[in-house]
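Reopening closed ticket. The problem is back. First fold of the pair:
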Amino acid sequence: MKRRGFRPKIFDEIGLAGCTDDVVLDYVIQENRILLTHNCDDFEELHQGNPSHSGILAVYRNANPLKNMGFKAIVKAIANIETANVPLINQFISLNQWNY
């Protein structure tokens, strides 16, 4: 991701590991960052309650692990969103549909 110009932060590295989802969302709002998560259902619910953020990118997991999006597919899906000029602000977007 860094090679593509992204500046990812990992929650373990910034002391948010084990924090509640609302604390994580508050952090990304304060830092004006986009959240990338596998915790789709919880963050979609939080988004509905507080839709004012820089964007939430959700990666849903499939019941068949072989169909899950890997790192390269996630990066490609983000690139597809960028190419399509999709606005991220205040949006909850499933990356799975951008995996092509």
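Second fold of the pair, where the issue appears:
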Amino acid sequence: MRVVVTGSGGFIGSHLCYSLANAGHYVLALDDLSHGTDVFSSRSPKRIAFLECDVSKPGLVSVISDFKADAVCHLADASTASPAWDTGMFGRYSDALTNCIDASVQANVKKFVYASSADYLFGKQCDMPVKDTTRAKPANLFGMHKHNCECIVAHFVSNTRLRWAILRLPYVYGPNSRRLVKKARKGNCFIADSMKRRGRSVVYVPGDGNQTRDFLWIADAVSALEMALRDRRLLGTVNVGTEIETPISKVLAKIEEITQRKARFEYMYKKKDDVPRSQVNACTMRNHRWEPKTGIVRGLMNMAENGIEADFVGGDA
């Protein structure tokens, strides 16, 4: 399989590229490096070709066509790590998504996969766990953007032969989450920050620590995306998660227990539009024989044992 990955310099994108290449697939990694990092050029990995490219600009169709791509995974989007959320930024990302869809259709790509959010699409009024069929009720501007992008995919692709899937990912964590994100929103990488803290350095934590999240290990997120890329039957909008709801405060306490070091936590912002709870029902993915293999405790132990900048999923390809 020949796969184009946009946003390849980001946390999830870089891991996905290495995992695909390690599995024997050929990858064209695209990123304009405005927020991500070029982790490919210096390491010269096999089966991965990196191109610094703004996917919102004209000419993308020739890039995808020349590569003879079978599938496109679109990860060049706003994330919770973005230092600031504004309508202008979201507009640019929406334009990039539309351009990627149009280029994929013209290049006769067989499958288009978009990564959405399982956390911010649903507000306080939603019952947990959220299902694939749960109606989106965005909690904030970021959630509204993700919902808008889902609508763009469903609308523009529905009248074409392009098969598509939207995967709603929860909070994804793992090695390199801090190193691969430029200008990260303060408090967003609190797991990695807690692992690497030294001396009296402060670890910034979003909210008050009582929020819950469905924490998904990076390798499990990558395996879900890989399944969506290769499985012709996996279509539409589906949730990805562990179906386990864990308080942030419990995660911080477990990190202190594993590292045997006390930390100084500073709780950052208590916004009215924050999401207090997150728990994801991933029954559709399970029906396709996808299962998360790493729980939150095992994942934290992996980071403590191997380092927060350990190798990528799949190694050096």
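Update: turned out to be a display glitch only; the data is intact. The chain has one domain: 2-306. The first helix runs from residue 11 to 22. Please close again.
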